[in-house]
Amino acid sequence: MTGPGKLPARDFEEIRLAEALERGRCPVCDARQEASYAALRGLAREGATDRGLRAQMDKGLGFCQPHSLGLARMELLQTSSQLATAVLLDAVLRRRLTTLKKLSGHDASGQLRGFAELSDPRCPVCARTAEASRAAVMRLLELSTDPAWSAALGTGEICLDDIYALWAAAAGGSKEVASRWSSVAAAQLKRLDALQKLLAEYAHNSTSDRRHLITREQQAAGAASIRLFGGTADRDRTR
Ligand SMILES: [Zn+2]
Ligand SMILES: [Zn+2]
């Protein structure tokens, strides 16, 4: 099995990672988005009738802000309604209200402890994306034994957060993984160095009297730096 480009891939997971790298997307962002999409689609379709999920919600499971919105949007897209979302949010709200009512009877330190606990929404979609992120990082480090993958990882548009994640996982891995990563890291640092120089030139040309000097390359560096810090934008899965 091979991806659409030249990276060798053994399964669909690897095809997806290869595709992301070949299309200039961060493969770890892509894996996270894919997992979030799948989890939200599942929740929108079956979440309201899933007894196991409801039982977990009675124990405090809820949704973070982005995934509350994500769930509502996904359901609207899939079914033109937001009824399942309402059923799920009702279950969360009930549980949260019970907690808040109990809290008002506590002293200040008890309330602070309660809010510290509430600050983690225990979002199941976040749990799935974190898991997908870890799996993608481990798989990419594994794939770096292949010279083509190693080269693609070195030049790929990996976002800064995921460079950190890959690097940290490599540092915490075996000696072999760490040494394989060091050549990827060197190539990534070279890429970031070049990007930073172009970005500086772009910024230098940003004044109105110099704006006509901006090159296409500098402009592209501006966009690439936003992807570096903001992660790869989600692709449109509805088409
Ligand atoms: Zn990323
Ligand atoms: Zn979440």
Tell me about the largest β-sheet: none
What share of residues is helical?
over 70%
Determine the strand fraction and express it as a percent band: under 5%
Assembly form of the protein: single chain
Helix/strand order, N-terminal first = HHHHHHHHHHH
The tally of strands reads: 0
Distance between the termini: 25 Å
* Rg measurement, Å: 22 Å
Mean pLDDT over the residues = 93
The tally of helices reads 11
Q: What ranges have pLDDT less than 50 throughout 5 or more consecutive residues?
A: none
How many domains comprise the coordinates?
1
**SS content category:** mainly alpha
Ions, cofactors and other ligands present here are: zinc ion
Tell the overall outline.
globular
Structure report:
- The protein is mainly alpha-helical and 239 residues long.
- The protein has one domain (12-230).
- The protein has eleven helices and no strands.
- The chain has helices spanning 12-22, 27-46, 51-58, 65-79, 83-103, 108-118, 124-143, 147-155, 160-171, 175-204, 216-230.
- Helix 8 runs parallel beside helix 10 (175-204).
- It starts with 11 loop residues before the first helix and ends in a 9-residue tail after the last helix.
- Bound molecules: zinc ion (2 copies).
- The site of one zinc ion (ZN) has 8 residues, from helix 2 and helix 9.
- Residues 26, 28-29, 159, 161-162, 231-232 line the site of one zinc ion.
